[in-house]
Each structure stands twice: as structure tokens, then as C-alpha cells.
Write a structure and sequence with these properties.
Number of strands: 11
Low-confidence stretches: none
Number of domains: 1
Largest sheet: 5 strands, mixed
Oligomer: single chain
Radius of gyration: 25 Å
Structural class: alpha+beta
Helix content: 25-40%
Length: about 350
């Protein structure tokens, strides 16, 4: 009787254990895509919110200055004769100009807008004395984009400057839409305004005189096509690394085919001038592939099926990869007179 009360418990056999593991693996396989979809939906929503904040900042700048920020400006005079790099007149980028309106006043205050961006007084240590350019501004970064380091040191060393180590700068996944490239106009949209490269809402370059900004004083009223029909900022994510159709181009060390310079928010050449590519995304100006084809001077993001884009009225809409070149060109130009019919 005692033996019946304390019968030995039977253990799992190897086959049973393998079946349980297989069932768990199948459940994980079914669950993982759902988790990834939820995660990407959250990242896409955060990306949209970032662009909305940038839109509010652009409008805040417009309200304060009575015109939109230019994609960049240059000085009409030598702003600092004591600059050890000589007579440098390159000014600053729009993403620098709107810093006070995105709650980055401390970063803005370390930037000397009265001096050239090519001046050690505006460079981060060890190359200069201004730490602001190092800052990773959260709303300038899309959470769907792979993390990376932006280092301009190799570029300036290639120009003959002494090697002072990495020049780390804050990256951006968003860029001002300057306009259309001549290649795009000739191949994909012959009816676009000519010259096409400054046709964006913020596409003109400003000129800083001793008396203040001249030129590029575009107002919202001057968006003839309507502010809701003009893309002013869009994703151009992932640089320095060059991406083509979702794949990194290699080799990608500085100076190689898979590396591009313009990737920092403080760099005024970090803009979009839509050029289009061939179907592979690797031949610039070789065709009319326009969204998520290549991230050099084009609209590019890491969301499935398209990118987020900010319009002049402050709204953010998802621009699908299937958008036709004609529709995209119409959305980029501020005064082309096109009738935009979107899906």
C-alpha cells in the first residue's frame, strides 16, 4: 500500500521536450512580427511628432522674423578677419536658426551666428571651442533610423588641416527641401520651374550683410501653390552611410563610395535637392525613383512603404514610395502652379 501512495513521477522524454521547444519557437515566430510592427508604429509616430515640432519652430521663426528661414545663408563680408582659416563666408543652416524654437536655446547660445560655420570659434573641441555642435538634438533624430556616429574630422584632414582627432557633430535625419535638381527636371519633370534648385519653400539662400539678412525673405503668403501643397522638410536619414533601396552601400569609409559628408544638423549642405535615381537606387540622376531610393540629396527614411514629410501648413503626412515623380515635384515646388492629386 505504501508503494502505491508514493509512486515515482515520470520525467519528460526527449521527444516531449523537443515538441515543447518547437511549440515555443513557433509561438515566438508568430509573436515577433507583431511586436516589430508595434515597435515600428511607435517609432513612426515619434518621427511624425518630431517633424511637427520642427514645423512649429519654422512657424515660430516666421512669426519672429516675418519670413521663413532660408535653407542657409552666406555672409557678404568677412565676418571675422582673425579666423585662422582665412576669409570664410559660409554661414549657417536652417536647422541651426530654429534651435531657440525647439527648446535648444542653450545649444543656440554656444553658436556664434555672427561668424562663419567654417571657423574654429564654431567648431567643437578638440577642433574648436563651441560644444553646441556636438549635441544630439532629439527631435532631429528619427527612432527608426540606425544609430551612427557623425565625424567630420577625416574631411577636414583631407583638406590639409592638422589631424586633431574626431570632429563629432550632432546628426540629423531631417533636411530642408531646397528644391529639384536639374537632372530631375530634365529626366522626370520637364514642366518644373527653371532653374529648379531653389524652388522649395525654403529653397533660396540668404545673404547676411552688416545690416542683417537680405534675400531669401520668403513668407508663407508667397507659397503660391498653397502651404498645404508644399513639402518644406522631409526625412533624409542615415548619413554618413549611404543607403540605396534599404541596403547600405559599401565600402563606407570616408572618401569611399558608401560614405557622404553632409549629415550634421549644423552643416548647411545637409539639404534635399531631389535628383532621382535608377531603379536600383545607386545611379544618381539615372532615373525617376524618388522616395526611399537613395539618401544623398533625396527623400529617404527607414519606415516601411514611405517617409514622413512636413508641409508648410505644419501638417505631417506619410509620403508613399509609390508617389509619382510629377506629384513629388509638384509638392516640392512652391510656385509651380500644379494641381496636386495625391492618392
Amino acid at each position: 500500500m505504501r508503494g502505491n501512495l508514493y509512486q515515482r513521477r515520470r520525467a519528460f522524454t526527449l521527444i516531449e521536450l523537443l515538441v515543447v521547444i518547437a511549440i515555443i519557437a513557433i509561438l515566438i515566430g508568430l509573436l515577433l512580427p507583431a511586436v516589430q510592427k508595434v515597435r515600428e508604429a511607435a517609432a513612426r509616430a515619434q518621427c511624425q511628432n518630431n517633424l511637427k515640432q520642427i514645423g512649429l519652430a519654422v512657424h515660430g521663426y516666421h512669426d519672429a522674423n516675418k519670413y521663413l528661414p532660408p535653407w542657409a545663408f552666406d555672409f557678404t563680408f568677412n565676418p571675422r578677419p582673425a579666423n585662422p582659416l582665412g576669409d570664410q563666408r559660409q554661414g549657417h543652416a536652417a536647422l541651426s536658426l530654429i534651435l531657440p524654437y525647439v527648446e535648444q536655446g542653450n545649444v543656440f547660445n554656444t553658436t556664434k551666428l555672427e561668424f562663419s560655420v567654417i571657423d574654429p570659434i564654431n567648431w567643437p573641441p578638440n577642433w574648436g571651442v563651441a560644444p553646441g555642435g556636438l549635441t544630439r538634438v532629439p527631435i532631429y533624430l528619427c527612432p527608426s533610423t540606425p544609430d551612427r556616429v557623425v565625424d567630420y574630422g577625416p574631411y577636414f584632414v583631407s583638406l590639409g588641416l592638422p589631424n586633431k582627432g574626431p570632429m563629432l557633430l550632432g546628426p540629423t535625419d531631417y533636411a530642408i527641401v531646397r528644391g529639384l535638381h536639374g537632372n530631375f527636371r530634365s529626366v522626370c519633370m520637364p514642366t518644373a520651374p527653371n532653374p529648379p534648385d531653389n524652388t522649395g519653400a525654403m529653397g533660396q539662400k540668404g545673404a547676411m550683410t552688416p545690416n542683417g539678412m537680405t534675400q531669401a525673405r520668403t513668407t508663407l503668403v508667397q507659397l503660391i501653390d498653397g502651404s498645404s501643397n508644399c513639402i518644406i522638410v522631409a526625412e533624409d536619414a542615415g548619413r554618413h552611410q549611404i543607403w540605396a533601396k534599404g541596403k547600405p552601400v559599401s565600402p563606407s569609409a570616408p572618401g569611399q563610395v558608401g560614405w557622404t559628408l553632409n549629415s550634421a544638423w549644423a552643416d548647411y549642405n545637409t539639404y534635399i535637392r531631389v535628383r532621382g535615381t535608377d531603379g536600383t537606387g545607386t545611379i544618381m540622376g539615372g532615373g525617376c525613383c524618388v522616395v526611399n531610393c537613395n539618401n544623398v540629396n533625396n527623400i529617404y527614411g527607414f519606415h516601411t512603404g514611405g517617409v514622413n514629410a512636413l508641409r508648410g501648413d505644419g501638417s505631417v503626412q506619410f509620403l508613399r514610395e509609390s508617389v509619382t515623380p510629377g506629384v513629388l515635384g509638384a509638392l516640392v515646388t512652391r510656385n509651380g502652379g500644379e494641381v496636386v492629386q495625391e492618392n
